[in-house]
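quick one: magnesium ion bound model?
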Amino acid sequence: WEELTLLTARWPAEMCDGVRVVVQANLESNEELAAIPRSGADGVGLYRTEFAYLKGRLPDEEELLAEYSVVAQKISPERVVFRTLDVGADKMLHAQAALKEPNPALGLRGIRFCLRHQGLFRTQLRALMRAGVHGNVAIMLPMVSGLDEVQQVRRIIQEMHQELTAQNLPHAPVLPLGVMIETPAAALICDALARECDFFSIGTNDLIHYIMGIDRNNRHVAYLNEPLHPAVVRSLKHIVDAAHREGIGVSVCGELASDPLGMALLLGMGVDTISAAPRFVPGLKHLIRQLSAETCMELAHSVLLSTDVAASRRMVREQLHQSL
Ligand code: PEP
Ligand code: MG
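yep, here:
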């Protein structure tokens, strides 16, 4: 089965009723680039940029530019979505560890850290804009919880454009800018956020934890990490609908997208793009080819009506088994 899946990896992920799904890959560093062609991924939906920063010293602009340019070139003409530095909580820089925040998961992480340490952030944005001339590059902001964060980033990008132009450095002046939806605040204001940005990617790992009020590393409350909880399911649907009303696309790059049941549910809610670790991509594409958009929509409909997690789980399993 595995061999068959790999052989068909490059075929498009088209459902039985002709609906095409974009399946992209999540990458942790450019060392994983070689896995992309074999996986059949339609580009990179999440490039985590933390790796270069977790080596005990901060990378400079030229180092970042070299890394990002190679990735953009290799993936071109497909898109690569670079997520700006998302440190904090489970991935700490020395500067952050020194803050000794009592609760880092609720602290200065993701975009909050970058807007506080703008020197570091500007270096990264300059490298991304310069790498933009080597391929199809988009920028994505993690841990957004307010409109002003996106507006500030747009202003900084505009300044970086003026700076790079004055220095005669080739760069892409306007790159698509998206946000990760992974805080309840972002989920609740996603209509307004959708008007400020070009795409959404739902980070279900964090979103579920913050909705459920649990720490992602605390095993005592791991039982509450429940994607089928009605609060989670309703939030997901709300985000997808708001994005589509405002005319932007939605991807899911959290682990829920690489779970077969989770993926079917997400497609049924109208998610446009799935992004998962390269090893999951061939299997997800294979599964998509056996599903129909109608089955997925019925599944999502039943789950959205349910307030009983165990019943939802049974329903998803049964409906999927029947359709496969
Ligand atoms: C997520 O939160 O779902 C996500 C993809 O981001 P990370 O796991 O890197 O926090
Ligand atoms: Mg996250």
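The mean pLDDT is 94.
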